[in-house]
Structures are given as C-alpha cells and as structure tokens.
Amino acid sequence: MSPKLPPATRIEADVARALAEDLGHGDLTAALLPEQAQLSARVIVREPAIFCGRAWFEETFRQLDPALSLDWQVEDGDTLAPNDTVCELAGRARPLLSGERTALNFIQTLSGTATVARRYVDALGPGTARLLDTRKTLPGLRLAQKYAVRCGGAFNHRIGLFDAILLKENHIAAAGGIAPAVAAARHQQDAVLIEVEVESLTELAEACAAGAQRALLDNFTLAQLRQAVSEFGQQLELEASGDITLDTLAEVGATGVHFISTGAITKHLRAIDFSLRFSD
To answer: Considering 15, 90, 139, 184, which has the largest number of Cβ atoms within 10 A of its Cβ?
Structure first.
C-alpha cells in the first residue's frame, strides 16, 4: 500500500508558493510564444532513483493549465533506472514551459529524499529496528519530505513540536531534572508520546522511573546500547541517535533498539537528475 499523501490543501500551497517565487508577475520568455502553440514532452531520469513527487508535479501544471495532458509511467515509491520515462505531457506550450522548472524541482528534491531513505533502509537490513527521520527538513516542505521518507521505506518521527514531546537537555535543565520534566509533560499532555533524551545509562534509568514512554539514546556506544536494551528494553521504547552513518546502521540495529533516527535522510540528500524533453 502506498504511503498516504499530505492533505491536498498543503500540496496546493506548496506549489502555489513555488510558482509565485518562480513566475512573479509573469513568464516573460514564454509570453513570446503564440498563445495557442502546442508542445509535447516527456520526463526522463538520468540516474538510478526512488521516484517521489507525482502529486506536486501534477499540481504545478494543474495550477497553470488544467487542460494539459499528463500520462504517468511510474508511481511514487517505484525504482527508476537511467533513461526511464517518468511522464509524458502534451498541451499548450506556454504553461508547459513556465512550469517546467518548478515541477522538476519538486520531483528532484522529493525523489532525492526517497532515494536516500531507501539507501539507509537497505543498509539497516532486516530486523525489528525502524528507521526514523527528524525535523531537519527543508523549510516549508516538512510534510512533503516526510512523505518522501515513507516512499523510501523509512518511518516518520514527530511531524513538529505539536504532536509529541521530546525533552532535551535544555528542557530538563529548565525543569529541574528528568523526573520533574516528565511529570510536567504528563500533566500537560498525557495523550501524546513523551520522549526523553538521555546521555548515560544513569539518565536512562531516571527517565524510565519517571514514566517516559521512549528514550532517545544520544551518542551511546554499541556496548551501551546493548546494555540499555538488556536492562530497559522491556520497560520503554529505545531510540538510538547521534552520529549514525550508513556504515554503522546495521551494527546499531543489531543491538536490539526499537528505533534509529537520523537527520541525514532529509538534510543530506542530493537532487535526482530529471530532464524534461520537448518535441513539437
């Protein structure tokens, strides 16, 4: 089953914002063409990738000209090979040319995110640990990138600061310690996930005793992770994070932690090379 898309209103807003910054008061170059001139085109990919961003691509051209024809050859989450045709387009030349860059920007960025996510999922290998993203996303494209993460086979951590509580070092210091910080969180928002970032097994024990539902094990060694799982893995969820790379993922997953989170799958992406080729 395909991952659920963000709300249509969010996709519309993403595209409207992108078109506004690209077109401004109008496409001066496309305006040189006859208004009813027709073009056909196809999008190809130039490198291996996991595809993502179809809805944003479609919405770009829908906002410019709903009469344009789009014939898709792929779905979000599909594996692409170099020179694969992704989509064929036909219609008035002006909106096709005006929307080219904006539409490609969306699929190159979101496919880049999905491709990195799949690479990390593959490196993690089989097991019970789930790979999570973080809030280290491109400003304004949080839901889009988190959707792309799911298309790549990974999972989402909290969407923002509003749907879960993650007590970090500064929160804990301001509250006077782990126990009072967790108590305050449970008093205010007992219905959401309450997670505590810990830097030692001692702090993990405190978080567990305070009633945290999950602990973020910050920069734990492999030995510390194994000990954390042995002593506390049945009492609360354990999430490994901090300086986790493709080379260390499998070892971290093998310790038995429930989750592994990394910002790399959304912030260390490289845009995928797509090309829109036109013909008369």
So the answer is: 15
Amino acid at 171: H
Going by C-alpha positions, the residue among 66, 56, 65 that lies closest to residue 10 is 56
Structure token pair of residue 22? 């690209």
Contacts of 246 (CB under 8 A, 6+ apart): 119, 120, 123
**Cα 14 to chain centroid, rounded:** 15
**Which one, of 30, 55, 57, 63, lies nearest residue 43 by Cα?**
57
- HSE-CB of 76 using CA atoms within 13 angstroms: 27
Contacts of 6 (CB under 8 A, 6+ apart): 143, 144, 147
Q: Is 20 helix (H, G, I), strand (E, B) or coil?
A: helix
CB 194 within 8 A of CB 163: no
Compute φ and ψ for 237, nearest 5 degrees.
Answer: -75, 145
pLDDT one-digit tens code per residue, 115-165: 999 999 999 998 889 999 999 999 999 999 999 999 999 999 999 999 999
Q: DSSP letter at 221?
A: -
- Give which of 225, 260, 235 is closest to 245, Cα–Cα: 260
Output phi, psi for 40, to 5 deg.
-125, 155
Whether the CB-CB separation of 140 and 147 falls below 8 Å is answered with no
Instruction: Write the Ramachandran bin of 30: left for phi over 0, alpha for psi from -120 to 50, otherwise beta.
Output: alpha
- 233-247 pLDDT per residue, tens: 999 999 999 989 999
Could you identify the residue written with the tokens 């961003």? 53
Q: pTM for the full model?
A: 0.95
Catalytic residue ranges? 101, 136, 168, 197, 218
